[in-house]
Design goal:
It is a single chain. This protein is of the alpha+beta class and 496 residues long. It folds into 3 domains: 1-18 and 73-234, Reverse transcriptase/Diguanylate cyclase domain (Alpha-Beta Plaits, 2-Layer Sandwich), CATH 3.30.70.270; 238-333, DNA polymerase, Y-family, little finger domain (Dna Ligase, domain 1, 2-Layer Sandwich); 387-490, no CATH class. Helices cover 35% and strands 17% of the residues. The chain has helices spanning 10-15, 44-48, 57-63, 74-90, 111-114, 117-128, 142-151, 165-169, 181-189, 195-199, 203-221, 251-266, 304-311, 348-365, 387-391, 393-396, 424-439, 441-446, and strands spanning 2-6, 27-29, 68-70, 96-99, 102-106, 135-139, 157-159, 238-248, 275-285, 290-301, 322-333, 409-413, 462-466, 489-490. The strands form 4 sheets. It has a 5-stranded mixed β-sheet, sandwiched between helices. Strand 6 (135-139), helix 7 (142-151) and strand 7 (157-159) form a beta-alpha-beta unit. The longest helix has 19 residues, at 203-221. The chain is globular, with a radius of gyration of 37 Å. The protein starts with a strand and ends in a 6-residue tail after the last strand.
Length: 496
């Protein structure tokens, strides 16, 4: 079974640890400066008065004038969440944290240790602590375990079997399914307000209307795919902090302090020559709040210049003066080394730089942002127009083909001058030439310098020439006189 431990409103609960008296008053987590003014998690009293998470700040204050806004404290929340994860790991659970306040683990290895599934889940709740009001859910699928934990009450355990999974998910609100807010609003406009209604829609129609995000939500509404939970790698415990005698808001001073912290933490013996994969920079701000940014490097390194370039620009995002600066090495890894060449090939360094640049572009803009140019045909000598190659052989020099319908009808290009009103001698000569080309098509193909583009339609004007005269369809001379020897000529639509 896959278990999920959920602590709703974890960021607000972590921020209220310094002022616990606000937990019984209407309070909400304030939005981050510079972002959309939306309220975060709210207390039970605020929810009773009509304030909801995600409500606009002005609307929330109008609904509840006595609402207290609590400043976010991401550093305290990260530290408290790390303590909870370590407590679960000390109890024998291989945890996979999804976000602060939500963690998954498998119970197969610990059920025998604690004497059953329910006993193992109770041990996990006790490891989290009753002060956080955790709830537990278990199921065979990851999303089902999350839904069970959302339905459970504080301190309760809810287990959902596969036999009644669809009946359990059907009446749940659509807000449980993770998706973009605009997609959820679009589904609400269509009358889809529950997980069961979304699961009852055709998957192809949902993917066509909502894209990949809607397709994933539809799959989760039907239970999701069964997958194993892999435990995390325990983070490194290498931290350096610098406390200022007074608040500092100068970016240059902060950059110098960060450089000093970085040199100190790299010299710590606990690192043991390992390379840095992920590091985090946090600060304690004036007024009681905190600030935190983490960076994951594409290639593990210990180069001082690369580490400075990765985190130093983040200091410009500080919203207030700093009282304490803290640097933490979150993840360390053993470097596998790079194979060097004795005699590098010509242009090898340029290829390495190009590959690295392309990988960075794909990492920042997506895999479909970089395409490869493929040559479809060689250039034509003599300075011919390159765009003519894309039109195909039929549009450039005029391809001649024989129609299978009737043995007396042939297709020739208008470049020969076969238009209505031609004399019979030219018509008969053109027909004879087409017969010769039909008998020996290779000779004509050898003289053609252009490659054929498969599937390109004939776009040039054509004329249909018949050798046998039709008494009901005779040609005309230039002066309008009827030519008794003219072939019947009429325009036809091009064929592939």
């Amino acid at each position: 079974m896959i278990a999920c431990i959920l602590v709703p409103g974890f960021a607000l609960r972590a921020a209220l640890r310094k002022q616990p008296g606000l937990a019984l008053r209407p309070a909400a987590l304030a939005p981050v400066a510079g972002t959309e003014p939306l309220l975060g998690p709210v207390t039970a009293e605020a929810e009773r008065l009509g304030v909801r998470p995600g409500m606009r700040l002005g609307e929330g204050l109008a609904t509840c004038p006595q609402l207290v806004l609590v400043e976010q404290d991401p550093a305290a929340a990260e530290q408290a969440w790390e303590e909870i994860l370590r407590s679960l790991e000390d109890s024998g659970f291989a945890v996979d944290p999804a976000e602060p306040g939500c963690v998954y683990f498998e119970t197969r290895g610990v059920e025998r240790l604690y004497g059953g599934l329910e006993a193992a889940l109770r041990r996990a709740l006790a490891a989290v602590g009753t002060a956080w009001d955790p709830r537990a859910g278990a199921a065979q699928r990851r999303f089902a375990a999350l839904a069970a934990a959302n339905v459970a009450r504080p301190g309760q355990i809810l287990v959902v079997s596969d036999e009644r999974l669809h009946d359990f998910l059907a009446p749940l609100p659509l807000e449980l399914v993770p998706m973009e807010p605009r997609r959820r609003a679009e589904l609400h406009e269509l009358g889809v307000k529950s997980v069961g209604q979304l699961a009852g829609l055709p998957g192809a129609a949902v993917a066509e209307r909502l894209g990949p995000d809607g397709r994933r939500a539809w799959s989760l509404a039907r239970g999701g795919k069964p997958a194993r939970v892999r435990g995390r790698r325990p983070p490194a415990e290498i931290v350096e902090a610098l406390e200022f005698p007074e608040a500092v808001g100068n970016e240059l001073t902060l950059r110098r302090a960060f450089a000093a912290l970085l040199e100190t933490v790299l010299a710590r013996p606990e690192r043991g020559g390992r390379f840095i994969r992920k590091l985090a920079l946090s600060a304690r701000l004036v007024g009681g709040g905190s600030w935190r940014r983490s960076v994951t490097l594409r290639d593990a390194t210990t180069e001082l210049g690369r580490l400075k370039a990765a985190l130093s620009p983040k200091l410009a995002e500080l919203p207030a003066p700093v009282l304490e600066l803290r640097l933490e090495l979150v993840e360390l890894t053993e470097h596998d080394g790079q194979q060097l060449e004795l005699l590098p090939a010509a242009g090898g360094e340029l290829d390495v730089r190009l590959r690295e640049g392309l990988r960075q572009v794909r990492a920042s803009t997506g895999s479909g942002s970089v395409n490869q140019v493929v040559e479809v045909a060689p250039l034509v000598d003599g300075g011919a127009d390159r765009t003519a190659l894309l039109r195909g052989r039929a549009a450039v020099r005029g391809e001649r083909r024989c129609l299978s319908r009737r043995n007396t009808q042939m297709l020739v290009h208008a470049k020969r001058g076969l238009t209505p009103g031609l004399r019979s001698q030219r018509s008969v000569a053109a027909a004879d030439q087409v017969r010769r080309e039909r008998d020996d098509p290779q000779e004509d193909a050898a003289d053609d310098p252009l490659p054929r583009v498969v599937g390109e339609p004939v776009v040039a004007p054509v004329a249909l020439v018949g050798v046998d005269r039709d008494p009901h369809d005779r040609g005309q001379l230039d002066g309008g006189e009827e030519d008794p020897h003219a072939a019947s000529i009429g325009s036809v639509s091009p064929r592939r």
